[in-house]
């Protein structure tokens, strides 16, 4: 329990750091972005919206930084992230809530799949060194060195087309209303296959490599020799003894590298025009939509923190030593 | 973007498999360098990287065309004049690739150097000083580790309008040091308890001297692997930034090529030559850097080497799998298998007998 509370405290601290960073980033913008935006949408903005923007961007010359900071937190707790300019006049929070589910389904599911598959292959490669599995490493390394988006582009080129099963972009058939019914779900799955495969192929090698190296290290430990000497079946030694212990560093590595992976998968969304957070970020960049960018950064960071917390819970179940203390 | 390709952190600290750092005698240093190069992965990776560096230096001079100059041939496939075809404006893709190499290598290495310096300063200090300093620095690096780096880089560079190579490299460097700092801290923690460090401290050496002369030489492998990992990340990030079009488009790099190709729907128009060379260039560079990292891992922990053939066929037709820590048993015959050779019976009448040992296994 103590371990768990420590982690929660750390994540709260990180969330605070990220939000503070988010508060200061727009203050680096040279010039007056709000004024530029206001003139662009002359007359369309309410006075309240302009005020909220000034708090977000800190051009409010009347207040000092501290009072702006307090004001910023108040807005956050009210769920007010400002208005999006790319999707004017939709509030940022609404834009995000529309796209977060897409990203969670695509990136969440594929990341977990990639971890499971990669770890499984890593166990195999580490346990049966010198067999065909040694060939996995160079091949997957090559694929992981390719940028995600390039792989996606090539996949679109090779696999999609007028009569192809794979659609070349989008989240679902145009005209379908998102709902859990027999029309929308199959179409959504069909559209997510190719992006998912792209992410899977380029991210799996890291897991294979780290799990293989852990397996190699663990399999020369004394307790493995003892397990063999006791005459336990090979499968049991490999999975119950070696893999179980090798898995621990991999799980904590999983949590820590989530930040890296999420960033990469966004590019896949952009290439496939998948209506998730990454694609929104792309559109926000094109339109200089700073409120949306800020909101996206916030939501990504918080999602990664939550995922980290979940990984810690898994770790808690896997490693009895962390549970023992309390 | 990618998972760090090195698992050096998992392999080294506290796993009992740590390669014992040798007190480097000057005479041995040369031999050790060659030892690293004798690893085939290291040699291959370094040679490829060397080629890229040479191209980065001479690329703009040997490029047959000005990368931005428009030509007569629009969207032409590879030919003897344009080795990698042309773009929609008749620009030569091969020249763009050559000229772009410099920017990619420059940003990769500058970001790598910045991140490595930061990680060494923060990681080694945290590990060596310990106490409150360690807690603060560890918390700092953990925060940077968990915050998604690429979105942050994208947002920061998009805010700085028309960010050039220097800005991009510095932003990447300042956001990607945390992983290495963490690894270095763990490694420093385990090193500072070693006898030779304790001894140096007992003889009254100053902390600065202990760190630079006792600790850093033994951290070389970790630092190098962290540097290589950061270069991979930086290269991919720079190309990504250029691809989504938020960095300055005045300089050519491989991402800029892909940006224009994507913008002009190159693949929909079947202009594969516009896409494929840049992508392959990235992939080969990334693979070369990963190979170097594998080699560093294997150098530090030799057990990680690919084992070669572990299945051995014996004369009797059975197959046996070699495994660490085990002596394979080749037969199940009731007679005990031993390495002891029978005591030779010496025939005193004849010449001195030569005992021929049969190999037991």
Automatic annotation (TrEMBL), chain A:
Entry GO CC: plasma membrane
Superkingdom assignment: Bacteria
Signal peptide range in chain numbering: none
Record-annotated ABC transmembrane type-1 domain positions: 100-311
The entry's keywords: Membrane, Transmembrane, Transmembrane helix, Transport
GO biological process: transmembrane transport
Transmembrane segments: 9-29, 100-124, 136-159, 188-209, 254-275, 295-318
Record localization: Cell membrane; Membrane
Main location: membrane
Membrane disposition: Multi-pass membrane protein
Family: Belongs to the binding-protein-dependent transport system permease family.
Protein name per its UniProtKB record: Peptide/nickel transport system permease protein
TrEMBL record, chain B:
InterPro entries reported in the protein's UniProt record: BP-dependent_transpt_permease (IPR050366), MetI-like (IPR000515), MetI-like_sf (IPR035906), OppC_N (IPR025966)
Protein location: Cell membrane
UniProt membrane topology term: Multi-pass membrane protein
Main location: membrane
Transmembrane helix recorded as keyword: yes
Cellular component terms per the entry's GO annotation: plasma membrane
Residue ranges occupied by any ABC transmembrane type-1 domain in the UniProt entry: 105-293
Record has Membrane as a keyword: yes
Regions crossing the membrane: 42-63, 104-129, 136-160, 166-184, 219-246, 272-296
Pfam families, per the entry: BPD_transp_1, OppC_N
GO terms for MF: dipeptide transmembrane transporter activity
Keywords: Cell membrane, Membrane, Transmembrane, Transmembrane helix, Transport
Protein family: Belongs to the binding-protein-dependent transport system permease family.
Protein name stated in the entry: Peptide/nickel transport system permease protein
Annotated organism of origin: Actinoplanes italicus
């Amino acid at each position: 329990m103590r371990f768990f509370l420590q982690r929660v405290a750390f994540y709260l601290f990180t969330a605070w750091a990220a939000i503070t960073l988010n508060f200061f980033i727009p203050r680096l913008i040279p010039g007056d972005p709000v004024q530029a935006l206001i003139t662009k949408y002359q007359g369309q903005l309410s006075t309240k919206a302009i005020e909220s923007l000034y708090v977000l961007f800190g051009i409010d010359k009347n207040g000092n930084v501290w009072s702006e900071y307090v004001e910023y937190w108040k807005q956050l707790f009210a769920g007010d992230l400002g208005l999006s300019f790319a999707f004017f006049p939709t509030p940022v929070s609404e834009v995000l809530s529309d796209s977060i589910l897409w990203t969670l389904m695509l990136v969440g599911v594929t990341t977990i799949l990639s971890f499971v598959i990669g770890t499984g292959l890593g166990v195999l490669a580490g346990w049966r060194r010198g067999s065909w599995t040694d060939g996995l490493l160079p091949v997957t390394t090559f694929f992981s060195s390719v940028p995600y988006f390039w792989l996606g582009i090539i996949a679109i080129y090779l696999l999609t087309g007028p009569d192809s099963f794979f659609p070349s972009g989008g989240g679902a058939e145009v005209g379908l209303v998102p709902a859990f019914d027999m029309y929308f779900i199959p179409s959504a799955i069909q559209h997510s296959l190719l992006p998912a495969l792209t992410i899977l192929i380029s991210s799996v090698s890291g897991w294979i490599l780290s799990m293989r190296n852990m397996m190699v290290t663990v399999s020369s430990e004394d307790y493995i020799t003892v397990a063999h000497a006791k005459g336990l079946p090979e499968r049991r030694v490999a999975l119950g003894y070696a893999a179980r212990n090798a898995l621990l560093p991999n799980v904590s590595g999983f949590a820590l590298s989530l930040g890296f992976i999420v960033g990469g998968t966004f590019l896949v969304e952009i290439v496939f025009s998948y209506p998730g957070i990454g694609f929104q970020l792309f559109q926000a960049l094109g339109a200089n939509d700073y409120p949306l960018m800020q909101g996206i950064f916030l939501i990504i960071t918080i999602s990664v923190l939550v995922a980290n917390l979940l990984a810690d819970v898994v770790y808690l179940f896997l490693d009895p030593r962390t549970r023992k203390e309390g | 973007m990618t998972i760090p390709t090195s698992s050096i952190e998992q392999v080294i600290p506290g796993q009992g498999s740590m390669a014992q750092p040798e007190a480097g005698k000057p005479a041995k240093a040369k031999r050790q360098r060659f030892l690293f190069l004798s690893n085939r992965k290291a040699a291959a990776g370094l040679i490829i990287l060397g080629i890229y560096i040479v191209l980065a230096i001479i690329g703009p001079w040997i490029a047959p065309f000005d990368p931005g100059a428009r030509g007569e041939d629009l969207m032409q496939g590879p030919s003897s004049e344009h080795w990698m075809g042309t773009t929609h404006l008749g620009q030569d893709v091969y020249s763009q690739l050559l000229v772009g190499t410099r920017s990619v290598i420059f940003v990769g290495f500058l970001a790598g150097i910045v991140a490595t310096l930061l990680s060494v300063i923060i990681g080694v200090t945290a590990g060596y000083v310990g106490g409150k300093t360690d807690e603060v620095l560890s918390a700092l690096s953990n925060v940077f580790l968990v915050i998604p780096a690429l979105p942050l880089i994208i947002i920061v560079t998009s805010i700085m309008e028309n960010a050039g190579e220097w800005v991009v490299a510095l932003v990447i460097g300042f956001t990607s040091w945390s992983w290495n700092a963490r690894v270095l801290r763990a490694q420093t923690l385990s090193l500072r308890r070693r006898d030779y460090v304790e001894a140096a401290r007992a003889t009254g050496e100053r902390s600065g001297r202990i760190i630079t002369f006792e600790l850093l030489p033994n951290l070389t492998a970790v630092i190098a692997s962290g540097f290589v990992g950061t270069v991979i990340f930086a290269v991919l990030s720079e190309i990504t930034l250029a691809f989504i079009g938020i960095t300055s488009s005045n300089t050519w790099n491989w991402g800029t090529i892909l940006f224009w190709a994507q913008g002009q729907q190159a693949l929909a128009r079947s202009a594969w030559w516009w896409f494929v060379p840049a992508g392959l260039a990235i992939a080969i560079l990334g693979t070369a850097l990963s190979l170097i990292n594998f080699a560093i891992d294997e150098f530090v922990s030799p057990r990680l080497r690919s084992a070669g053939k572990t299945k051995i066929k014996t004369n009797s037709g059975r197959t046996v799998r070699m495994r660490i820590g085990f002596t394979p048993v080749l037969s199940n015959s009731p007679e005990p298998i031993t390495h002891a050779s029978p005591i030779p019976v010496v025939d005193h009448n004849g010449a001195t007998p030569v005992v021929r040992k049969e190999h037991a296994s």
